[in-house]
Design goal:
It is a single chain. By secondary structure, the protein is α/β, with parallel strands linked by helices. It folds into two domains: 216 residues, Rossmann fold (3-Layer(aba) Sandwich); 151 residues, Rossmann fold, CATH 3.40.50. Helices cover 41% and strands 14% of the residues. The chain is built from 14 helices and twelve strands. Strands 2-1-3-4-5-6 form a six-stranded parallel β-sheet, sandwiched between helices. Strands 9-8-7-10-11-12 form a six-stranded parallel β-sheet, sandwiched between helices. β8, α9 and β9 form a beta-alpha-beta unit. The radius of gyration is 21 Å and the shape is globular.
């Protein structure tokens, strides 16, 4: 069977990009796979910017679609497997698949697809005053909410994109893969037929290769955050919680880049808080393997936490908010999940990291749990069933 995978990579490589590449590596072992990767880097030339602006407005990037159409004509895939389309691949890939009568499977990773701001829903997710997807308070005029990257303009375009995407998912013969049951239930609430939706978590390679010769100039046995350094990721909540937990014997390592990095460096120049900037994936895995726990305080609804799943494979527990379907990737009655937006609960869970007995027990449990959920045989069977549908 021939499978064409299409994905737009992010400007700062993140968990979704890593997950897509891992899945592509797996698919190559069992199917004839061709891949098209686009980059979201934008040219600053005036002519190019104007062209990109119009591509934004109609959600069709002609330059990218020409590449996709050439590949469809030459490769003649049986299945087009679409991952992230924002914004370079564009939603026009669905029209091309329809033109060539090719089966389409789409996997929804990003919180934008589940945020009621994007879909212009009448109510926020779960009817709450604070959206579980974008982490911001409900507003009557949602178009003026800077919920995406703290930008009015970007938020406006994401709303256009989200509205158009929902219409495509509703009105076309497309199999939709969600990462969790939580995501599936929300799409059903958006009037997408249940039979179109299949819960299919991202593939995470159970064999994470560590370079024991890699020399790291950092303090071991600490707490690690790795990801985008931005407002919506809850870094201020995390650092304030860490300080309040008074875990002086445990350093906090913050890995990544983003618009909030310089501010955090200035405001939190503590001797046990270290900012490492962006590091390659192997180095991040090496640091995590030596740590007590991984932590996130994201204000977003996250689809599947790639980093937390990788940490589990290394036998490293995680602290995270109880949002969406994240708990679906952890053992029952997991004790390090805290109530979202509850700073005191975050502090209490951070304090548990210093309890050796709890951490040692969880180290075994999270590793066993994730290995069961991500067996290669089970994954191959699921792909086989989906491609036949």
């Amino acid at each position: 069977m021939k499978v064409l995978l299409i994905h737009t990579k992010y400007q700062n490589i993140g968990g979704e990009d890593i997950a897509v590449e891992s899945e592509a590596t797996f698919l190559k072992k069992h199917y004839e796979l061709e891949e098209i990767y686009f980059s979201n880097q934008i040219s600053k030339k005036p002519v190019s910017l104007i062209k990109q602006f119009f591509y934004f407005l109609n959600n069709k990037n002609k330059d990218s679609l020409n590449v996709v159409e050439d590949k469809i004509q030459s490769f003649k895939p049986d299945v087009i497997y679409i991952q992230n389309t924002w914004f370079k691949a564009s939603l026009g890939v669905f029209s091309l698949a329809k033109k060539y009568h090719t089966k389409v499977i789409v996997k929804l990773h990003n919180y934008r697809h589940y945020c009621s701001q994007s879909f212009l829903s009448k109510v926020h997710l779960n009817g709450l005053d604070v959206c579980y997807a974008c982490g911001f308070k409900k507003k009557q005029f949602r178009i003026f909410n800077k919920y995406f990257e703290d930008s009015y303009l970007k938020s406006f375009f994401v709303i256009i994109y989200g509205k158009a995407y929902l219409k495509i998912l509703k009105n076309n013969d497309i199999k939709i893969l969600t990462l969790t049951n939580f995501q599936k239930d929300f799409l059903i609430d958006q009037n997408i037929k249940e039979e179109k939706i299949i819960v299919f978590p991202n593939y995470t390679d159970k064999n994470i290769t560590l370079d024991e010769n890699l020399k790291l100039d950092i303090k071991n046995n600490g707490i690690v955050y790795a990801g985008r350094i931005s407002k919506e990721k809850g870094l201020v909540d995390l650092i304030e919680g860490f300080i309040s937990a008074n875990l002086k014997e445990l350093p906090l390592h913050i890995i990544g880049n983003g618009p909030l990095l310089n501010y955090l460096k200035r405001e939190y120049a503590y001797e046990n808080i270290f900012f490492h900037g962006e590091l390659d994936h192997k180095t991040v895995m090496q640091i995590i393997s030596k740590s007590k726990a991984v932590v996130t305080a994201t204000r977003l609804y996250e689809g599947q936490p790639t980093l937390l799943c990788e940490a589990s494979k290394l036998g490293v527990p995680s602290v995270f908010p109880d949002t969406g379907g994240v708990l679906e990737f952890f053992p029952e009655n997991y004790p390090l999940s805290y109530k979202k937006f509850d700073q005191s609960d975050l502090i209490n869970k951070l304090k548990l990291i210093s309890n050796e007995e709890i951490i040692n027990e969880l180290s075994v449990l999270v590793k066993e749990n994730i290995e069961v959920k991500f067996s290669e045989n089970m994954l191959l069977e699921k792909f086989s069933n989906i491609f036949k549908l």
